[in-house]
Amino acid sequence: MTFNHVRLTALAIILAATASGTALHAQGLLAAAAKIEPRAVEEKDVVSGKTKLDPAKGYIFISGVARQFGMFLRVPDEATRAEWEKDREKAFGKALKSYRSELALWQANAAQLKEHKMKSPDAPVEPALETFQFDPIDLRDQVGFGPQFVYAKGETVSYMQAVKPGTYIWYGPVLGGAGVPAGGVCTCMGTVRFDVKAGAVTDLGNWLLAAPEPDEIHRQVIQQANDKRIAAGKKPLPPVERPEIKFGLPASLKDWPSVQAEFHANGKLNNLFGIMISRLLPVPGVLGYHRDTIVDLRTGQEIESPTLISRAKIKK
Fold this sequence. Notes:
Elements: H1 3-26, E1 40-41, H2 43-48, E2 58-64, E3 70-74, H3 78-115, E4 142-145, E5 152-153, E6 157-163, E7 166-172, E8 174-177, E9 180-186, E10 191-196, E11 201-205, H4 207-210, H5 216-231, E12 258-260, E13 264-266, E14 276-277, E15 287-290, E16 293-296, E17 301-302
Parallel strand pairs: 2-11, 9-14, 11-12
Antiparallel strand pairs: 1-6, 2-6, 3-4, 3-7, 5-6, 7-10, 8-9, 10-13, 15-16, 16-17
């Protein structure tokens, strides 16, 4: 193999890589992850006066008997959507600029390959704003909490997050996100939402853990698991006792305005991190199911869900 042939082969490899890189830009997969500022509030800072109530912010308070973690997604409002569109157009401009540079390189190298009757890879694909995929807008105002940065520890372990006011959806016990690999289980197939008002603490208490009740499907799964354990000579799983639903803020927040969260059924969600999926168990008077259809038990109406797009990698 001559040096010139090696050089041309290398050109072909570079062209293939160039086309691949442009495709990534065109899909927006190289865009920066949605930024999120730390929102944890700790009791010691409230007591010392370091952290004071910000009337422009809302606060989410969660409590339980042990450390926990989870994620909320804020429903995008007009301001968030406008900001997202602006960032998307900026990212598209960069992708378009990159495409033009890579196309020029591809054209120059492809001409040399053609002279030597060597096939060149496909040309880079020009990105189009209509199909340009940017960071999901649903993740623009994601809020994670736990298991670290607790508000207070004692008989209960609590967390408080300072957030933008708005409507929040419980995404489930998910850890990570905002540029960090995520893990856990998303409640994509059925969950709840609640409103967070400015200048007040929205008290969720232990509701997310205590309110859901096992349904018939859940009981059947447990029974099947116990039947297998018994057949294998093992003891059945101990029954899971639901804790009593409790709300209430610690004394350190007695001067902060507060409101008890009011939960409503929410439609299905996209699996934005490609993680395991599930659904929140039924909640009397709030959330129910007709097979895989979500039902708003406050109204008795079924909730329509959008077409879902998962980021899970499909095994071939």
